[in-house]
Amino acid sequence: MGRALIIGCGGVASVAIHKCCQNSDAFEEIMIASRTKSKCDALKDKLSGGKTKVRTAQVDADNVAELVALISGFKPDVVLNLALPYQDLTIMDACLATKTHYVDTANYEPLDTAKFEYKWQWAYKERFEKAGITALLGSGFDPGVTGVFSAYAQKHQFDEINYIDILDANAGDHGYPFATNFNPEINIREVTARGSYWENGRWVETAPMEIKRVYNFPEIGPKDMYLLHHEELESLALNIKGIKRIRFFMTFGQSYLTHLKCLEDVGMTSIEPIEFDGRMIVPLQFLKAVLPDPASLGPRTKGKTNIGCIFTGKKDGKDKTYYLYNVCDHEASYREVGSQAISYTTGVPAMIGTMLVMNGTWRKPGVFNIEQFDPDPFMDGLNKWGLPWQESFTPELVD
Ligand code: NDP
């Protein structure tokens, strides 16, 4: 039994909060705190009647003093950060000041640089060790479950993993000509950035969307997928022994890419502030304001996601391949918690990671990526809480 403070009340938080309330044996009490308190109150009203006690609060997560006051008042066992990547460091500072465990789903990114790197959060390692508290970084799906899958493959299936391909397919159709499945600003920053992969101890950079493959996904069928940089590549390259190459591919439909290209060409995806009507605006933030809210896609999205990892390596001196993946249905997710599968596949692992830190199963002083913990209780949690995994020993490989 424990208490969790959840910061942010967007698409991912809504699922994580539903799941905490389903898991009331672990989550005795939660507080939902976000910039817009009315959203927290509206969610609380939907959830009232369950055993988990729910409180709400307003907080500016860019302000450490406000966060410290909130944490000191509520005294949670753990803080689950589901605001935006820009708030990671202020929330970690507040956790240090109050000696409270910390969990997030995305690595810190400065507002003015679209660059995913763990260096800022890893720099907190010694301070978390000294304070005797745990920071669990990246407890979503990717990063998150992909790291747990890698730790599980390393523990149970291989003596040495040499290659990992992470494949993220979304075959969902929301019926809009263009929309993003999670926060548009974060999503577009990710897909317009240069691609990269890790090979033989160094990063190989690519132009955005330069490398394309077609993969025949179980339960989805053939899809175009493109190589992107993704944050878990950095930590897996360090934490998986014998690794020679790690790549990340995500599927995109032609219509999405054509719209994105046009928006880029006219400057709408830029994060450089410009003057408009006497005030400074960031084009990408303005674009976010005119695009459909990802939360509104839930009732309209049909189809499935398939996210997983293909491992190639050695077991007992022999070559071996192994594919671990999860298939999630958009409509089933919506029926259960009122959100589409992208939020569902992130919110469920966020709840599981928070539970494992809160109940002490995954507690050690310092700052850790998810693959640095024992994967087994998390793998059990995925089956129990709505993201069952499947395995194949003869997967199609990506060339
Ligand atoms: P949303 O934009 O839907 O939600 C973000 C929430 O954070 C909103 O409620 C917003 O408040 C709140 N917020 C933003 N700034 C502040 C602030 N300064 N103080 C307090 N609250 C703030 O995003 P998502 O739910 O889609 O994403 C949440 C996180 O999950 C992101 O970090 C994203 O990168 C990550 N993610 C991780 C994935 C993974 O697999 N690992 C996949 C998808 C997302 P308001 O309502 O006022 O705007």
UniProtKB/TrEMBL annotation:
InterPro entries xrefs: NAD(P)-bd_dom_sf, Sacchrp_dh-like_C, Sacchrp_dh_NADP-bd
UniProt feature coiled coil, ranges: none
Alphabetized Gene3D superfamilies for the sequence: Dihydrodipicolinate Reductase, domain 2, NAD(P)-binding Rossmann-like Domain
Saccharopine dehydrogenase NADP binding domain mapped to chain residues: 5-136
Highest taxon, organism lineage: Bacteria
Every Saccharopine dehydrogenase-like C-terminal domain range: 140-386
Protein name (database record): Carboxynorspermidine dehydrogenase
Native organism: Sporobacter termitidis DSM 10068
